[in-house]
């Protein structure tokens, strides 16, 4: 058996320090300017970042907030949903959207996902709609858009709102059948995102944003995030306290300049994984939908369920981190069992929870580490 040569350096699931070091001077200057000016809340960097983010996504308005979960909550509050209204959400995803649905007294309708994209589709959505359905939350998982053209058409026919969760897919581009190209999050009524440090566009703490083309909706979103204030001490609607800190906006302003470069680095790493894992019958590499670019927040493979945990342990022994996103569908999480509706038996979601494994993926991932990771996966399955 050919010996696998170890790569140079420790392998990170996400290398936030390496990314910082590449921008150290600019980031340090931006943070120092904030501290010197002492405008920690609503400083000028917040408005500037909102402006540049909206331009990047080609949407009219962007509004910063405290985190991605707050963004989802503010979006649902802005749309005027009432307790008992149904919200369609994928069962195979992070808990944030369903958590907000429950906190607002809405009814989650948990649906299965497409086995290739891991996202909801028009056909899945159509099975879930009832007279109480008001909103669908397409979660663009792992860096790839849901099939938004079908979802948009279905929602128009059924008078449903769309709140896109782009926490893992900021910068992904969706191409409609007529050739129109829109950014993930700029397609539905409201787009939301998270700037959690490990995200493709991450800050150095918590942060989030909402974006929309609707001026009235943008104004309401801004009010809700500021305690419902239209003017200081005048509260026109019930709101929350959720602001993007000036320090985080300053960091994001610098990193936004490099987001396209970050996407390309992730895509390059994913392409190398594809080549090096090719021909392994036990490994299914990530699917790329023809209608959208994949920005690879995660590089998630599918392997046989009976061998997934053993592979994860084997890689750990070789100094290779990996993660299972996600080990349980939302319908089986203790907090949400028996809540709302579940459409069907969710066979795909249950299968994915047993088969998926996310490999190291970040902007600083060197080629020799990808080769080392891939060779160890190959060795595991060929022994």
In total, how many beta strands?
A: 14
Q: What helical percentage do the residues reach? A: 25-40%
Structural Rg: 21 Å
Describe the biggest sheet?
8 strands, mixed
Encode the helix/strand succession as letters: HHHEHEHEHEHEEEEEHEEHHEHEHEH
Write out the strand line-up for the largest beta sheet, numbering strands in chain order: 1-9-8-5-4-2-3-13
Termini distance? 9 Å
Description:
The strands form four sheets. Strands 1-9-8-5-4-2-3-13 form an eight-stranded mixed beta sheet, sandwiched between helices. It has helices spanning 16-22, 24-37, 44-57, 68-78, 96-103, 122-128, 148-158, 215-225, 246-256, 259-277, 305-317, 347-355, 367-382; strands at residues 61-65, 86-90, 107-111, 133-136, 161-165, 173-175, 181-183, 190-194, 208-212, 229-231, 234-235, 299-302, 341-342, 356-359. It has 13 helices and 14 strands. Helix content is 39%, strand content 14%. The protein has 383 residues and is an alpha/beta fold. The longest helix is centred in the last third of the chain and has 19 residues, at 259-277.
């Amino acid at each position: 058996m050919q010996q696998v040569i170890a790569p140079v350096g420790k392998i990170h699931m996400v290398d936030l320090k390496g990314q910082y070091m590449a921008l150290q001077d600019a980031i340090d200057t931006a943070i120092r300017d904030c501290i010197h000016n002492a405008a920690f809340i609503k400083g000028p960097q917040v408005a500037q970042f909102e402006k540049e983010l909206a331009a990047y996504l080609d949407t009219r308005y962007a509004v910063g907030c405290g985190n991605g979960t707050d963004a989802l909550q503010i979006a649902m509050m802005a749309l005027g949903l009432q307790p008992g209204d149904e919200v369609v959400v994928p069962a195979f995803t992070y808990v944030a959207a369903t958590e907000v649905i429950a906190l607002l007294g809405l009814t989650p309708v948990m649906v299965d996902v497409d086995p290739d994209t891991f996202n909801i589709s028009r056909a899945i959505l159509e099975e879930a709609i009832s007279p109480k359905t008001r909103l669908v939350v397409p979660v663009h998982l792992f860096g790839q858009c849901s099939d938004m053209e079908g979802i948009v058409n279905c929602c128009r026919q059924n008078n449903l709102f769309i709140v896109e969760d782009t926490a893992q897919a900021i910068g992904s581009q969706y191409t409609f059948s007529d050739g129109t190209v829109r950014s993930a999050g700029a397609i539905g009524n409201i787009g939301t995102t998270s700037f959690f440090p490990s995200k493709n566009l991450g800050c150095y703490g918590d942060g989030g944003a909402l974006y929309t083309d609707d001026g009235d909706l943008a104004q309401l979103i801004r009010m809700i995030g500021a305690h419902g204030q239209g003017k200081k001490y005048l509260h026109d609607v019930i709101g929350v306290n959720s602001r993007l800190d000036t320090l985080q906006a300053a960091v994001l302003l610098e990193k936004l300049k490099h987001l396209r470069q970050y996407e390309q680095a992730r895509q390059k790493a994913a392409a190398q994984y594809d080549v090096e894992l090719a021909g392994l019958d036990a490994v299914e590499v990530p699917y790329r939908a023809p209608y959208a670019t994949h920005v690879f927040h995660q590089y998630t493979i599918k392997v046989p369920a009976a061998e997934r945990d053993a592979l994860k342990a084997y890689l750990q022994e070789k100094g290779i981190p990996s993660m299972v996103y996600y080990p349980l569908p939302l319908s089986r999480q203790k907090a949400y069992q028996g809540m709302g509706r579940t459409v069907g038996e969710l066979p795909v979601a249950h299968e994915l929870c047993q088969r998926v494994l996310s490999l190291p993926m970040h902007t600083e991932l060197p080629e020799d580490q990808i080769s080392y990771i891939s060779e160890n996966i190959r060795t595991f399955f060929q022994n």
